[in-house]
Design a protein that fits this description.
By secondary structure, the protein is mainly alpha-helical. It is about 70% helix and about 5% strand. The chain has helices at about 1-10, 15-40, 45-55, 55-75, 80-100, 120-140, 150-165, 170-175, 180-185, 190-210, 210-230, 235-255, 260-280, 285-310, 310-320, 335-345, 355-360, 370-405, 410-435, 450-470, and strands at about 105, 110-115, 120.
């Protein structure tokens, strides 16, 4: 009797709010893809031509497939996913290994298997498989992240597909896998690597905007101020002396004595650190100096890689992001400008369904995939765009709540994996259309055109809701 009541309670605990948001986003995507493909001439009257030769027709087929898959997945016993986690992961890895040889090249990327009009992107299966595999591995022990070996193994589970996807090359899909660091942090991973990663990103951005000479000079000067501030006796005199030295260094730079000023700045900084170490035996200065050295090396290395190793189109994308004023409005900056114009042209309430001129005339490239948010902004304006953002934020909030209420650790890990994947897709895609991030080809979940993407996200959500509906079974 108790078992029967428990099963009945599990069956009645489906999160209908999360499901409703998911359905609303999918429906919004279908309407937006319909609008993008409508243009000025509408759609063909022949059903076969409509279904197989138009974007919305093929997306409708995928929508039906995803709907059937959702229903089938909801019938699968929730404990099965722990058993098949590594099998799905290995299947995804094998497909990623095969796609460079057997795949079809689209837009310079060999990332799809093609069978007529049917295309399949194995990276989507790899996301799902990696979420399951990482959750299963973390579930293997309560202290799984305590040893260095276990941490390397956990990171290796999602770094392996990243390396294979970069061979396609598909930097956008590879970047999504870094979202798995979120679940590792939630489960006790040291914050050190995250701080180092943030510092590296900041240094990369600064080095691209400014010359590494100026970045490293600023870092050395900042470190010198830290050392000067450590002096307790006659601090005011130390500060006056250091300000005078910095003034002389700035004067030397203005006179184009670049490396002389750089070496002088470095010598003064390390002299201050060594002086303070000898007088106070403060060993805390040693890691500061080591960190400074590594940051300076990273800055110059980043500059070299950017100018000599990155391909031209990769440098162009970064330049559009960080130095748009130096880009050609009719060339590399065209996509971002058209995207901003489409979103801004919608005003507060938008032009209306099928009434967006830039959408109808297809001014924005890839408008049904990477830039579909432009259509929402143009046709439904600020209010419609805000509504979509709010729906995504609520969905992420619901998924985090789902994660925290799980009794099974595997379910909690998996929920955080899905939250991370959705967050990266959502944040980068919308930021990309507004010029906040570089254009790297990441679709907007549930909304962008793409059958494999829709099926992949549907599968992730179905498994998540199934696991959550059985949270009382433990």
């Amino acid at each position: 009797m108790a078992v029967q009541l428990s099963n009945q309670r599990a069956n009645q605990s489906l999160d209908w709010i999360t499901l409703s948001i998911f359905v609303a986003l999918v429906a919004t995507g279908w309407v937006m893809i319909y609008s993008v493909g409508y243009g000025n001439s509408g759609y063909p009257q022949d059903l076969g031509e409509f279904m197989f030769q138009t974007q919305i027709g093929r997306q409708s087929i995928w929508l039906f497939i995803s709907f059937v898959a959702f229903l089938l997945l909801m019938t699968v016993d929730w404990q099965v996913w722990r058993t098949v986690a590594y099998f799905i992961y290995i299947t995804g890895i094998v497909l990623l290994l095969l796609v460079p040889f057997l795949g079809k090249e689209i837009n310079g990327q060999k990332a799809w298997f093609a069978f007529g009009w049917f295309t399949f992107q194995p990276a989507e299966l790899a996301k799902f498989g990696t979420a399951l595999a990482l959750s299963s591995y973390l579930n293997s022990s309560t202290n799984v992240l305590q040893s260095l070996q276990s941490r390397i193994t956990a990171i290796g589970i999602f770094v392996l597909p990243v390396l294979l996807i970069l061979l396609q090359p598909d930097a956008g899909s590879a970047l999504v896998f870094l979202s798995f660091f979120i679940v590792l942090y939630r489960e006790g991973f040291s914050p050190g690597p995250y701080i180092i990663g943030l510092v590296m990103i900041v240094l990369f951005v600064l080095t691209f905007i400014y010359e590494p000479f100026y970045v490293s000079t600023a870092l050395i000067a900042l470190t010198g101020t830290i050392f000067v501030n450590q002096f307790r006796m006659r601090k005011i005199y130390w500060w006056i002396g250091y300000v005078v030295v910095l003034g002389l260094i700035v004067f030397a730079i203005r006179q184009q004595f670049y490396w002389t000023s750089w070496l002088a700045n470095t010598a003064v900084c390390f002299a201050l650190g060594y002086w303070h170490y000898e007088r106070n035996k403060n060993r805390g200065n040693f890691p500061i100096m080591v960190g400074l050295f590594l940051c300076v090396v990273f800055s110059f290395t980043t500059s070299y890689i950017t100018n000599n190793i990155l391909q031209e189109h990769q440098r162009t994308r970064i330049k559009v992001w960080l130095k748009p004023e130096e880009c050609d409005p009719q060339g590399e900056l065209y996509n971002v400008l058209q995207s901003k114009m489409a979103i801004g042209g919608g005003g507060l309430s938008g032009k209306g369904f099928l009434e967006g001129p830039m959408t109808k005339l297809n001014y924005v490239p890839e408008q049904s995939t990477d830039f579909i948010f432009c259509t929402i902004g143009e046709e439904y304006g600020f209010f419609g765009s805000t509504l979509i953002i709010v729906l995504f934020v609520i969905l992420l909030y619901r998924i985090i709540n789902i994660a925290e209420r799980q009794r099974a650790n595997f379910s909690r890990y998996y929920a955080y994996c899905i939250a991370g994947i959705l967050f990266v897709h959502f944040a980068i895609n919308i930021g990309m259309t507004m010029g906040f991030f570089p254009i790297i080809g990441i679709p907007l979940p549930f909304i962008s055109k793409g059958g494999t993407s829709l099926l992949g996200f549907t599968t992730m959500m179905a498994v998540l809701l199934k696991l959550d509906s059985n949270r009382y079974s433990i």
